[in-house]
């Protein structure tokens, strides 16, 4: 990985245009919550430009503003000038990571979590098994009931309910390395099983593989895959992010595949843009291939004309647009097409369906208060639909929404679009 990351260069005329515009402000959650110009896309662009030109130092206040941004990219959708805000904020975080040494505590957490766990899938699986024992033994229930975490710190108390429910079995225990097409083979695809998706949503990986096989795809699910690298990239570690892409790429026979299927919005957005992020890198040929072959599962199914299910599910569902699917990958209609293809399903659109739920990677851990404010807003909009199922295509959103559902003490289910389709194919009503 030989790319040298510097602060993004923002031309003067662009900033001038921004000053007369401001169309992104009403769609920016951090601006709407605070009404502070510096917490808006335009304000941040101005700050980043000043720092990149050496007119302002890389101060703690500047760093705080860049981390306060959700990287939800709603501003990209709103911007008539087509500003690639996601690139600007991410390159800024990389530049900060290169030029500022983090304090001991955050440096250690970063090293342990990102390099120690998310870069090593087997280690992550081991820790996940310990978490499952904690969750199944009743200790988690006691902790939440008696507020034991709160005795140590308020932060620990706040984030305790956000721990994802760990699956009994992970992807490699549920799926073979090769799942042949049911019937004629028309496509050959690889399935990215991910990090969080593997330990907390292995059922979504199973649904993805089975749905693909039923749609005439040979599915390759190589072992030794791991995190796509997006968590490292979003946290400023571009070197490890690139490493993760290359490690995963080596497990696939890229040239033989029609597509690499991704069922987590954040991972898909990152991989699709990785060719631009790492352009000029010595491994760019491999990265270009990964970027061009990456497809979101809903996008791919719609492109190949997936088989319409016949089972009538009789369910009222609402759809939450994950930021990195709607704003990052510009995919909005494909998941809805899948939902609406199922007989008996009534899709009830919620207000602000593409407004961030507050999950945003690790934002609900680093900025818990703001994340919960956004979650309350989202849950209010969901409640107004009266739906019994929330459909969403990103593990982070599913974890955050599950917490929202548990706070409201109702029994709403949260499903990935492909899980709903798999349920319809299987002829299950789910009631
Ligand atoms: S990415 Fe989201 S939070 Fe950040 S400036 Fe854009 S709209 Fe605001
Ligand atoms: S919408 Fe685009 S051009 Fe307008 S202020 Fe926001 S970033 Fe600048």
Please outline what is shown here:
With 431 residues, the protein is α/β, with parallel strands linked by helices. Helix content is 55%, strand content 7%. The protein has four domains: 88 residues, no CATH class; 59 residues, no CATH class; 133 residues, Rossmann fold; 118 residues, Rossmann fold (3-Layer(aba) Sandwich), CATH 3.40.50.
Verbal overview:
This protein has 431 residues and is α/β, with parallel strands linked by helices. The chain folds into 4 domains: 12-99, no CATH class; 104-162, no CATH class; 171-303, Rossmann fold, CATH 3.40.50; 309-426, Rossmann fold (3-Layer(aba) Sandwich), CATH 3.40.50.1860. It is 55% helix and 7% strand. The chain has 25 helices and 9 strands. The chain has helices at 12-19, 29-34, 41-52, 60-68, 74-78, 85-99, 104-118, 121-136, 139-146, 148-152, 154-159, 171-174, 196-200, 202-214, 230-234, 238-251, 265-277, 284-293, 297-304, 323-326, 333-340, 363-366, 368-385, 395-408, 417-426; strands at residues 178-179, 187-191, 217-220, 259-262, 294-296, 315-319, 345-347, 389-391, 413-415. The strands form 2 sheets. Strands 1-3-2-4-5 form a 5-stranded mixed beta sheet. A 4-stranded parallel beta sheet has the order 7-6-8-9, sandwiched between helices. Helix 24 (395-408) links the parallel strand 8 (389-391) and strand 9. The protein is globular and about 65 Å long. The chain starts with 11 loop residues before the first helix and ends in a 5-residue tail after the last helix. Mean pLDDT is 91; it is low at 1-5. It binds iron/sulfur cluster (2 copies).
